[in-house]
Specification:
The chain contains 2 helices and 13 strands; from the N terminus they run αβββββββββββββα. The radius of gyration is 28 Å and the shape is elongated. By secondary structure, it is α+β, with helices and mostly antiparallel strands.
């Protein structure tokens, strides 16, 4: 009888611990470093970024087109380096002529972790000529943080300048960012710790009560 009584004392707390553990495991994300996003872009002052290719022209036949990243893509930042690199869109240059100062806006829309969007601002200027180019996007900011996820432009010259090369394959220049997502301790782990601490406390109280009988 005494052994059976002791078993009964342990059943409820152990069941509670198992329940808390199952909830915790089920609630943990498959990969806390996953980031899902898309981009949009536009040329012109106070323009509204769009998810379709957008174009601006200069003098003569000079032309620059931007193709955003859409639909959205998912990357995993849980790597040995702590970040992953991804393209935010591509520029294509063509024709002959010059460009005056033209505003460019690149918007990053992040859906997971759910956090909204952020904007890179830049100015397009330069001269597009046959056989070479000094057409460039000079970014006013090269770093965005959206809900704790950081986007850092990396394929730049002089810290903030992206040169657009018409002699690249297909005349395409990529705008690339290193993406870093912190991997916070899930709140469910705190739930597990609290639950197990409660179970341990109940066991100690029952043992003391049993010893006193």
């Amino acid at each position: 009888m005494e052994k059976q009584k002791m078993k009964n004392l342990f059943k409820a707390p152990l069941a509670l611990a198992a329940f808390v553990l199952m909830i915790t495991i089920a609630a943990l994300p498959a990969n806390a470093g996953e980031v899902t996003f898309s981009t949009a872009g536009c040329f012109g002052a106070a323009c509204s970024p769009v998810t379709t290719p957008t174009t601006t022209t200069g003098s003569g036949t000079a032309m620059v087109s931007f193709s955003p990243l859409f639909p959205e893509t998912t990357v995993n930042t849980d790597t040995p380096s702590g970040f992953t690199s991804a393209d935010l869109g591509t520029f294509a240059v063509s024709g002959i002529g010059t460009f005056s100062s033209t505003d460019f806006t690149l918007q990053v829309n992040q859906s997971a972790p759910s956090a909204g969007s952020g904007i890179f601002g830049g100015t397009l200027s330069g001269t597009l000529i046959t056989g070479g180019s000094d057409t460039r996007i000079v970014f006013s900011n090269t770093n965005l943080t959206i809900g704790g996820v950081n986007y850092q432009l990396v394929n730049l010259s002089g810290g903030n300048t992206l040169f657009l090369d018409p002699n690249a394959t297909g005349g395409i220049t990529r705008v690339t960012a290193n993406i870093t997502a912190p991997v916070p301790e899930p709140a469910t782990l705190l739930l597990l710790g609290s639950g197990l601490a409660g179970v341990a406390s109940k066991l100690r109280k029952r043992r003391k009560a049993n010893s006193a009988e």
